[in-house]
Amino acid sequence: MKKILLGLVLLVGVMSVASADTYTCHRYKDGKSTGGHVKVEANSKSEATYKAMEKYKKMNSGLFGGFKADSVNCRK
């Protein structure tokens, strides 16, 4: 019984990962496109926007910095 439940849980987990789409998110600073973009995997545009902003925050706190973004625009 435990093996059946474990198999079902793994199947559902794999299906949810497989349904994620790749989004390309362009960053904007002071209302203007900076020309930079990141790619994230997400289930929705709002999730992609959140992940992209988090990614830019991490990039900005690194050694090189300079990846500030006021907003992002994500597309599939």
Keywords, separated by commas or semicolons:
single chain; 76 residues; 3-stranded antiparallel sheet; 2 helices; 43% helix
Short description:
With 76 residues, the chain is of the alpha+beta class. It contains two helices and three strands. A three-stranded antiparallel sheet has the order 2-1-3, with helices on one face.
Mind telling me the C-alpha Rg? 17 Å
Shape: globular
Q: Distance between the terminal alpha carbons, to the nearest Å?
A: 40 Å
Percent helix range? 40-55%
| Number of separate strands | 3
**Please, how many domains?**
1
Largest β-sheet summary: 3 strands, antiparallel
Strand arrangement across the biggest beta sheet:
2-1-3
What string gives the helices and strands in order? HEEHE
Strand and helix layout:
Layout: H1 2-18, E1 21-29, E2 32-42, H2 45-60, E3 71-75
Antiparallel strand pairs: 1-2, 1-3
Can you offer a commentary on this structure?
- The protein has 76 residues and is α+β, with helices and mostly antiparallel strands.
- It has one domain (20-75).
- The chain has helices at 2-18, 45-60, and strands spanning 21-29, 32-42, 71-75.
- The protein has a three-stranded antiparallel beta sheet, covered by helices on one side.
- A hairpin with a 2-residue loop joins strand 1 and strand 2 (32-42).
- The longest helix is centred in the first third of the chain and has 17 residues, at 2-18.
- It is globular.
- The model has no long low-confidence stretch (mean pLDDT 83).
